[in-house]
């Protein structure tokens, strides 16, 4: 579980830039290439990007970047500098390359306790050639995996920001924080949400920057180092079938989404029941299944981006996403 304690003063210091961060999008999209999360929304993107990577001769470069930013419980914080210092990709890459050598060495040692490959050690030492490679690799990967999709990702972020702004106008900061439910919810003076490990983010009077990311899925992400300025990156739901409707490289036929492989009759019934939050036990009872079987179905739906889940005490609550509702209504192409 993730917990962020927010005093009244902390809420006045919140930073909500309402724009994607190029380095966070770069790293989180790299993670999506290493997993199968939100398959319904992102498998068409994965297929296109892998083709683009191969065509650009970047396969080995992207493989190396993925080892530098692994999809794991920890990846180096220096790859995602403070959003306040990153107005664009070039500024972000410059910030990455200017990371103090001691910090870079420490974070890469945490990623690779046994030392890692020779090229990782060269990056950790801040060798000039390794830094040139890293800067070039980040820019070239962004150019094939993130940049071509900015019209779509930017529109999704703008829609998300519109919802936050509307909540802020309607009921102030408390309503804006409440608009993140069920991803993040208020628990007394804290903001809590699902997280792979138990994690409390101390603010210590520092402003919390809340960053939207199209490539962040299922759960928010925070920096590992509590001494860095606190950042919370949260998922932005993609528009249903976003890449199937004329995305970059589309040949007019669109990418076909693997709906038939995902939705069987039981999962379709589960999705229909999740128009409101239900616990795993409630879902199991409604479907006449064991809790373990219901949990497995919910996991498949969650990994496809159709359901979000959050832990509340000893219960897990599930609800349908916008993409799940669109699929159920037959609104996907």
TrEMBL record:
Keywords carried by this UniProt record: DNA-binding, Transcription, Transcription regulation
InterPro entries (UniProt xref): ArsR-like_HTH, HTH_ArsR_DNA-bd_dom, Metal_resp_trans_reg, WH-like_DNA-bd_sf, WH_DNA-bd_sf
Domain HTH arsR-type: 261-332
Domain of life: Bacteria
Name of a matching Pfam family: HTH_20
CDD domains linked: HTH_ARSR (cd00090)
Keyword presence, Transcription regulation: yes
Identification of the protein by name: Winged helix-turn-helix domain-containing protein
Taxonomic path: Bacteria, Bacillati, Actinomycetota, Actinomycetes, Micrococcales
């Amino acid at each position: 579980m993730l917990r962020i304690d927010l005093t009244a003063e902390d809420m006045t210091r919140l930073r909500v830039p309402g724009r994607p961060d190029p380095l966070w999008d770069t790293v989180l999209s790299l993670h999506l290439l290493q997993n199968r999360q939100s398959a319904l929304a992102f498998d068409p993107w994965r297929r296109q990007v892998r083709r683009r990577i191969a065509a650009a001769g970047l396969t080995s470069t992207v493989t190396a970047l993925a080892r530098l930013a692994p999809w794991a419980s920890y990846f180096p914080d220096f790859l995602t500098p403070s959003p306040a210092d990153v107005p664009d990709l070039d500024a972000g890459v410059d910030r990455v390359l200017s990371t103090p050598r001691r910090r870079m060495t420490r974070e890469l040692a945490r990623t690779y306790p046994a030392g890692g490959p020779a090229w990782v050690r060269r990056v950790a030492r801040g060798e000039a050639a390794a830094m040139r490679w890293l800067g070039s690799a980040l820019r070239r990967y962004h150019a094939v995996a993130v940049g071509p999709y900015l019209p779509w990702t930017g529109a999704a972020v703008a829609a998300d920001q519109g919802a936050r702004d509307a909540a802020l106008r309607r009921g102030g900061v408390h309503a804006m924080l409440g608009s993140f439910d069920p991803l993040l919810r208020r628990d007394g003076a804290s903001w809590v949400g699902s997280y792979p490990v138990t994690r409390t983010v101390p603010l210590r009077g520092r402003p919390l920057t809340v960053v939207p990311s199209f490539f962040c899925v299922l759960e928010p992400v925070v920096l590992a180092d509590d001494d860095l300025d606190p950042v919370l990156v949260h998922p932005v739901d993609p528009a249903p079938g976003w890449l199937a409707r004329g995305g970059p490289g589309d040949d007019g036929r669109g990418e076909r989404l693997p709906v038939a492989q995902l939705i069987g009759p039981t999962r379709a019934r589960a999705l229909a029941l999740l128009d409101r939050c239900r616990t795993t036990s409630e879902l199991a009872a409604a479907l006449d299944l064991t809790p373990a079987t219901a949990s497995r179905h919910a996991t498949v739906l969650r990994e496809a981006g159709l359901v979000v889940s959050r832990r509340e005490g000893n219960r897990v609550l599930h609800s349908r996403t916008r993409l799940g509702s669109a699929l159920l209504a037959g609104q996907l192409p």
